[in-house]
Amino acid sequence: MHDVYDEFKHQLPDIDPAETQEWIESLDALVKQSGGDRARFVLYKLLKRARMLHVGLPPLTQTRYINTISPEQEPYFPGDEEMELRVRRLIRWNAVAMVVRANHHFEGIGGHLATYASAASLYEVGFNHFFRGKDDGASGDQIFFQGHAAPGIYARAFVEGRLSESQLDHFRREVVRGEGLSSYPHPRLMPEFWEFPTVSMGLGPLAAIYQARFNRYLQHRGIKDTSTSRVWAFLGDGECDEPESLGALHVAAREGLDNLTFVVNCNLQRLDGPVRGNGKIIQELESVFRGSGWNVIKVLWSREWDDLLARDVDGVLVNRMAETTDGESQRMTIADGAYIREHFFGTDPRLRKLVEHLSDEQLRSLRRGGHDYRKVYAAYHAAVRHTGAPTAILAQTVKGWALGPSVEARNITHQAKKMSFEELKIFRDRLQLPISDDKLTEDPPYYHPGPDSPEVRYMIERRRALGGFVPRRIVRAKPIEQPEASAFAEFARGSGSAAASTTMAFTRLLRNLLRDKNVGKRVVPIIPDEARTFGMDPLFKEVGIYSPLGQRYEPVDAETLLPYREAIDGQVLEEGITESGSMASFTAAGTSYATHSEQMLPFYVFYSMFGLQRTGDQIWAFGDARGRGFLCGATAGRTTLNGEGLQHEDGHSHVLATSIPNIRAYDPAFAYETAVIVRDGIKRMLGDGEDIFYYLTLYNENYPQPAMPEGVEEDIVRGVYLFRPGEEGRRRRVTLLGSGSIMRQVLRAQELLQEKYDVSADVYSVTSYQQLRNEALAVERWNRLHPNAEPRLPHVTSVLGGHSPIVAASDWLKALPDQISRWAGSPFVPLGTDGFGRSDTREALRRHFEIDSESIATASLHALALCEQYGSDLVAKAIADLGIDPEKPEPRTA
User: Fold this and answer.
1) Digit-coded pLDDT (tens) for 754-768
2) How many C-beta neighbours within 10 Å does residue 688 have?
3) Coil, helix or strand at residue 508
């Protein structure tokens, strides 16, 4: 009997082996006498009691398919449940009315009915008892609302008096500024209402984790007291299919973010059908969250099940709950009571006997726990009191709850936008609202009981007690005094003969800013485990790496000049190998001016290839959130990072950046250009309060950094300036445009043209093709709409619009310089790095992509030939003299 114990009892010392033996014998006897089910029941009870006694046992990754909080553990419910039911019904109706009216008048306008219908109780418990507002000047709670539930949030704001009927009637019609309501949470379009864009699936949960972490960062660095703020993230069980939803759970657990609560609306349905038709998504998610170190609270069954479970002495009901697949559960949801009695309870005589006292209608009315106010309140109450770890609440609901038999729990429920007259009647009757039938024949009317009604007074009182309305975005942050001029002064002088990369220069600038008395404490350096690659490791010692635990070990490099140093008040966010996590931190820091009324200055430095390409969705959401900060694409360019191969060599980020309306994208060639751009950005964002952000590309190629020419600062910011004019006295002339590290190839091409081919070349540094294009488009539009006024001239035309051919070379796709071609002059020849990257020397790569000095010179001579200023035979001779192979494959296809 005890051979197994005899084998393992010596693995660890046992101070009382006799007592241990008695426990094992008791378990053996229990299994022999009552079977495995009874033994399992007792063990679960013991484990639960151990947790209650705070015995330090690791939790099970999966518990039984019942509520985590038993009835006797439920706290007193402090609200008026009947009143809150009436409030909830008002909101449910108006949410549906808004979407149905919109789709009646504007076919295909869209919207969602079912998500909020399933989650109404989950939100209303929060609104009435937990979500903290900002009226007291504090940060309040940060709430990431599930995007598809937006109609319910609008409906509540309407009943509160914050939105008008006209605004509800402009749901998803936002062209008239300030009049419409956005489809989903979009701070860009509703800057005084929404705080966080969430509908791009998976980004909300990820952002919420790093928001909770950034709250602690501000607290530990003494910038803002965020101790009363809680981050709530509402997401769906289907949304958890997205890797981003669950990919950072370990971060929240590792850092002990007990200021974070996930509420997963487990209605068991995706857009097309069941989330896990053949399995149990809640059990799966419980294992994921518990295995990641989270506290998990399951809210599965309403109070109507409590009596049944209490009388389930054989455990057959618990077993039936556990073995029923989600697909079967959905079938039960749409079935009548007789079907439920036969197919759920009829599988075992003991189960059938358990419900023999209930009518078919009572069986039909057995609810899921996410629709039971008291069960949800108990879960939230436990979550906010749990310490040491974040909490995930898994609440089982029905998608489309209360919307009627044609919508509720059906596979088509997510696509439901309209309701018939009969369906509206059923819905109205379920909600017990005084709306006559004749008012349902056209548009369902909005229903507001009046500002002095008991329901509205109750809502307002509850929000007042919790600190004001939510969601609500408030910008209270004051302008920040600009950095001292000394932080930028050295870069205008250049580096003399010493070689340095623009990445090195930027790192020097960042260190200057960290030491600045005005902005230093607000700088947030963010790096995804590549600080040493970018030469930023001196920051480890100077300002420390943020860790809520400090540093509990002596690092291996403790005796060196630049040791790895973690600190509770550390300033650097060294994120590990996660661009998405780094981008989430960048978002939390870049929106802090609104979220916490604290202006922060984030610099996120990353391999440029893994920025806009890898996390473009987050960067777009950052623009939506009106974030401010600097994205710094280091080791930029398709040929400059020469040995890393195809997937590391970035030639397209600047083209991708062009698609984001409020980004300012720059490709500086020299250290002083970088300094001027950063200074301009700090003024615009922290001083003038512009809701913009910057993308800078930084290069790892070392070369002497020149001094800044006089009076070019404004043109650096605008996008182009004359860096080196060509020699006078030559009869042929071209204009060369360069940017980034390819500027050196352009300058060498200038020398070749002048020394060997008697061609004068003016060299312009183009710091931003994007800014030139945007300004030209704006001027073009103004001219189009003001035909009787004196036409304006785009800046790019005034600077470049001469009669000489233009050749533009960069380490990016030809599409980048080609953006300005129609305003710059003709012929315009873009040279770039179209095609896949590859490993080789810089010289070989630039010859391969035809952006080296010889290729630039060849393109210039051919452009002159097109203008009949140079003979084609002379171009052919130059091609041979310069070693250009005219028969080699096109780089784009090679």
Assistant:
1) 999 999 999 999 999
2) 10
3) helix
